[in-house]
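ABC transporter domain-containing protein
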Amino acid sequence: MDVGYRVKFENKNRESNIKKIFGHGPTISDQIQERTVLNGITGMASPGEILAILGPSGSGKSTLLNALAGRTLANGFTGTVLTNNRKPAKQIMKRTGFVSQDDILYPHLTVRETLVFCSLLRLPKSLSKQEKTLVAESAISELGLTKCENTIIGNGFTRGISGGERKRVSIAHEMLINPSLLILDEPTSGLDATAAYRLVLTLGSLAQKGKTIVTSMHQPSSRVYQMFDSVLVLSEGACLYFGKGSEAMAYFESVGYSPSFPMNPADFLLDLANGAYAINLLFNLCSLISLFSDSVELTSHDQNPSCLGRRNCSVCAILETFTCVAARARR
Ligand SMILES: Nc1ncnc2c1ncn2[C@@H]1O[C@H](COP(=O)(O)OP(=O)(O)OP(=O)(O)O)[C@@H](O)[C@H]1O
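Structure:
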């Protein structure tokens, strides 16, 4: 609820640093700048659902996910993260899995060795070695890794499992602790459309087992998009839309934004978040003005006594268009 994040950072400007050396530049306090990374974000994710956080690069997706997971100790966060029984989320942090953008895995271990090793480290001491191995094995089959369980992870120098399988290993690694909330930061980045779809299908099956899935995504395809239960669109740290994924297009159409041809809703939402449609709207407004400007003289309000202000003359038509566009822009 109302999650905000402001950071103070030093403006490391080369020119001002040189000036500082010669004693003519701004003081250090002058160079401290403040920036709002997240501004009043409110949303909700429920068990059995996938909540997707969409937005352009730098819109604050990772920052929001880190705030939800309680992974950042930095000052500057405001707002509250509550569980479904309205308890502060700190109480369930132990049951939260976080899959970061950059997975860190041992390149020389096989998939099975990685997960068994991690289960020995991460699972409670009360479990026997055999029980921990069983948990690792069930994570392997749950994430569809059986085929490659004896292949090494690999890295840039040694060929190993594929990019999609790597992501699955990272998710399986988090599934070991049986999280109730699974947070993923761009799990499909670097994957082709089919591999991304398969991964989101797997996330869907985890959601069906009662997990709450919150994931950020850069550019989901339309068939991936239709698997999201709810969507939160971020634009420069502010929430542009939060609601059902299936209702986003209807909502934006109702406020005057709709694509000129059928397109992937995710692409359309990203264009909106990037401000492309605001520019289009402005462009259309300018075209309208230029279209009407010639005829204003010909049928002005005064010369058209029958006009009752209902677009019967071009002055009223322009005014009405302006009022309508302004109202849409305000909304
Ligand atoms: N501690 C910080 N100091 C300065 N700037 C920050 C800090 N944390 C985040 N930012 C800025 O906030 C913005 C949002 O960052 P964030 O990583 O959340 O974006 P993102 O939407 O996840 O981007 P991407 O899709 O590229 O990963 C960025 O412009 C980043 O530079």
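The pocket of adenosine-5'-triphosphate is lined by residues 7, 9, 35, 37, 55, 57-63 (CB under 6 Å).
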